């Protein structure tokens, strides 16, 4: 993957936005570029020209600046996948604006003490090239106070947090010709309703089961609990997993076994009117179970029960399902990028509408930062001069005269960037973390900008 410079990247991902006025679209690109140059700073520090800062506030104030209008150009680009295999990893994260007492129009968080939004979004991952494609879609949800005496029927009729999963599947839509899309959800996404939405798009899923007490039909046609079906599952293989130490638990090598079963979920008796209208009476799927055998006493053993539309007859099939689920950490890391890398919760804008525009912009910019991190890690042998913008390399060469640019790999380039941010890179240091990469990246951008300024002065 060739790395674009910040201006090119912004152009590619924001130039098709429609905010109702060409000047406003241009303004969006300026604000986005400034954000990318200094992602964890406040708006004032990102937009150091007075005209840019005015443009940012002006933009966020416009009713046209919504999550959809700002991010959908990027979403569309992400969904237009080339033939291949892709994971669509979704999750919900709380965006907490509790500390900004003056902000109006926020929803509830937690038990009602917090204030903010739930951001439910989906990250597209290219399995063949091991790269982040982008954000495939997002929904912002404001939880409202629910009356204590709400009936089950009333609950099923209203938009709930559990509806976000299926709703986002619908908004993202089906995969294009030649692409296999696999939706990967944690236990929050386990419901018959959510699966119905994926059945309708014709795509695949790997979802961690949340309720093992639910009734299913096993392969002998008997009605059992999912827990019982798991108990009767067939073992297809074992493997060793080394687990790092945690507070109070020693490091150990765990023996894991993989079991598979086929089950049918009947439609629950009470479902929302929408699901009733789909007319899906039952869904047959595979269950892949990964669990630790002979876990030491007093240690809670690992067990994943994964529900999937993918084949699971052989060990190889089952492995694929497990490794798809193992990639779920990517969305958690992406949410970390948004919160700690882009300081998403730190902006003190005065209304929920302005925050929505801010969140939209950040969710797209966060993709770029996440991509840069993975490009560095995965492209261990690719030469930097073929992939990295020329100006960045030129700048680095001036700053570090001993560096041999012709030999530099993409991987080494990003270690050098982290180096600018304070990463020392001793053997024991491992891979550079977020903050050092960011600080290094910001420093490099500043050096590049300085060099370009000097060039124009001379001309
Ligand atoms: Mn979750």
UniProtKB/TrEMBL annotation:
SUPFAM superfamilies, A to Z: Ribonuclease H-like (SSF53098)
Transposase Tn5-like N-terminal domain ranges (all copies): 7-63
Domain Transposase IS4-like: 185-361
Annotated GO biological process: DNA transposition
GO molecular function: DNA binding; hydrolase activity; transposase activity
E.C. numbers: 3.1.-.-
Enzyme class: hydrolase
Keywords: Hydrolase
Domain Transposase Tn5 dimerisation: 408-454
Signal peptide: none
PANTHER family in alphabetical order: TRANSPOSASE (PTHR37319), TRANSPOSASE TN5 DIMERISATION DOMAIN-CONTAINING PROTEIN (PTHR37319:SF1)
UniProt protein name: Transposase for transposon Tn5
Organism listed in the record: Stieleria varia
